[in-house]
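Could you join me in thinking about how sequence relates to backbone shape in a protein? We need material for that, and I hope you will provide a protein of your own picking. Once you have written the record down, we can walk along the chain together:

…
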Amino acid sequence: MQQHEILAWLGNDHTLTDEQLDEFTTAANQIEQQYPDPDDQDEAQAALIAAYRLLVEDHTAVVRELSTQLASARCAEMLAVAGLKQAANQLIDAGQRTEAGFAREAGVDRMTVRAWRGKTATITGHVGATITGQQWAKLPNADIVNVFGAGQPDDTTHMHNPWDALDK
């Protein structure tokens, strides 16, 4: 970030000393490198705020507050996921939603919904390796056998082994 951008972000009454301003400028430039994508601006903004707060507030208090926020967010996520899992199981079992339809509605991928419903895939090349829907979303195309525990030969999809990419 350039000096005029930093001063505009801080405003006129930032109360930083020249030394703190230099430190904040260094932090702002590091943050800009960490979050270059326009889609990451919320994270960049949070990092800038933390950098500023660490210069003007007690470090321990800042870290404690951020830690509390993280714990609260994780708890909220856990509760929301538990509710979505129940909704998926109940609505899909009742025939009111399909897995794909529920996934779209819930803002998750279909593999996550399948994992919530206890369905996993076994990857060939790793005997007995199973992955969840959430892990599946992070892998490249896979060579899948016994898809979702179906165990029928006609349920097999053949692609390349994703574990090869992880070994590089």
Remarks:
- The radius of gyration is 23 Å.
- The longest helix spans residues 59-93.
